[in-house]
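We now fix the convention by which a protein and its fold are recorded. The integers have meaning only within a learned vocabulary of local backbone shapes. A record is reproduced here so that you can trace the correspondence yourselves:
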Amino acid sequence: MSLFSNPVSVADKTSASAPAASSRWQQSANNNSSYKQRRAAIPPWLMNTSSLIVMGFLILLSLSIGVADFSWSGILQSLISQSANSDSSLMLVSRLPRTIAIILTGVSMAVAGMIIQVVLKNRFVEPSMVGATQSAALGLLVVSLLFPASALIIKMGVATITAMLGMMLFMLLIHRIPPTDFLMVPLIGIVFGGIITAITTFIAYQTETLQMLSVWQFGDFSGVLAGRYELLWLTGGLCIIAYIIADKLTIVGLGDNIALNLGISKRHVTWIGVGMVAMMSAVVVVTVGVIPFIGLIVPNIVSRIMGDKLRRSLPAVALLGASAVLLCDIIGRSIRYPFEVPVATVFGVVGTVVFLWLLLRAPAES
């Protein structure tokens, strides 16, 4: 019996096992894919109606909570007598602008997270994981140091440009990563964002502007008053545009070949999405600061419930994002009353727990 006495049987075994191994590898890659398409588990009308009811309750609660004395009877008397009083002034100057700012911030960051997940075909990314918010803060700091008297719209424009540049650099970094290494993308994004944050902190330390930088790095709505939040309405318009082009974004998320066969320019749609995410991130950073995890958690929850069709799930993403930020802001105002915990801190804790649950939870069977 020679060692080479049966070469045919060895070749047969190898050729027979190769397709099985290839099939197992493809099945494993498909099961581990971070952007696997899902179907709706709950009808959209039921999800949206429930979200509207919850958001309405949270809006009333948000308008009622605060340090200053406030009563709804005073608002009613002001409406009946058609004259302003302390309650109506407090409502118009502080409570209502703050609630609107919270809603717009939650909606815009949740939609921005959904867009970037579709464009990058990865469920574990959000604007703060692709360098958008960090780059916006860096641009805002630089323009504030070089041109301190510049208008707010100019600062927002510079922050938008730097956010786009940061996202472009990040997309170049992940260009060669295989699609199956979906966890490498957020890891690289975290490192990339940490480098930009370190550069920004160094500049702020050298110029003695750390206190000013901390205002942008920690999202907080305590300083929102009438006249200081109106830029956030731009993000509402961008969300409407995102809903209009939702079908094109969905096709781009299905793959390059499908987009090409359906006549969709992947490059144009991708850069439109990147530009929208950069502008949303810049406006939020300029107005209220950085709030993490909104764009990561909310789209993942909605996609598990409603599937991946963007036009169908985008309203639910917007409503759930607004409700989530409202809830965290109410918790932050109530947990150490009359003091406030920044909403970024509260959402960071809640977001970490939910993110770990999403990461460790076994995927549902198709």
